Amino acid sequence: MNGVPLLVALLLVGIIARSNLIATAACVLLIIKFTNLHFIFSLLEKRGLEIGLLFLLLAILVPVASGKVTEKELVSTFTSLPGILAILGGALATHLNGEGLRLLQIDPEMIFGLLIGSMIGIVFLNGVPVGPLMAAGLTALFLETIRLFK
């Protein structure tokens, strides 16, 4: 079956690297594939990123909704150096994510290198795998930098 060996490999790598997210994603895709619910693939391809970002934003905004973050603390975002740097960091990260998305649309097989890099980061650098898009954005930045020096 097309794609099954790669998904099984990702499942194994996710288990070995103790990345529940990658292992779970590979399992879900294998289940979809084996149950012939192939229409879900196009739905995930078109809207999966938006759904994932929605849940990420919901998790990040819970402190605001629960009242753990006050209006006064939010105002300090615009008036303090750490807050201003957070705004700049958010703008740069968003730009890089967009570049990463474009890179993955042009060269989708690159995702495997990004996932292996994420595994290395998890296992050896005690990292947290929150963003293939950010990894792709950094890759796009590296590629553009190399192009400048050629």
Automatic annotation (TrEMBL):
It comes from the Bacteria. It is found in: Cell membrane. GO terms for cellular component: plasma membrane. The chain crosses the membrane at residues 49-66, 78-98, 110-143. It is a multi-pass membrane protein. Its main location: membrane. Keywords: Cell membrane, Membrane, Transmembrane, Transmembrane helix. InterPro entries: UPF0756_TM. Belongs to the UPF0756 family. HAMAP family: UPF0756. This is UPF0756 membrane protein Desgi_3260.
